[in-house]
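Standup notes, protein team

Yesterday: finished cleaning the Pseudoalteromonas lipolytica set.
Today: Bacterioferritin-associated ferredoxin structure.
Blockers: none.

Input for Bacterioferritin-associated ferredoxin:
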Amino acid sequence: MYICLCHGVTDKKIEQTIDDGAMTMRDLSKELQVGSQCGKCCGCCKKILNRKLIEIADITEQVA
């Protein structure tokens, strides 16, 4: 699903960027330009970021 219409960024691309090391909205904005134009995507981007960071933390906790 497209999250940032201004830059054509999908939820999958955001998730991939997080998997590749993005840890903050600033990182996502730097890599994908999300939130840099109209800003309407920021809420959805933050939700995706938070969900993925929780998943990563859970996986890391299970491995440790």
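Follow-up from PR in the comments: DSSP finds three helices and two strands in the chain.
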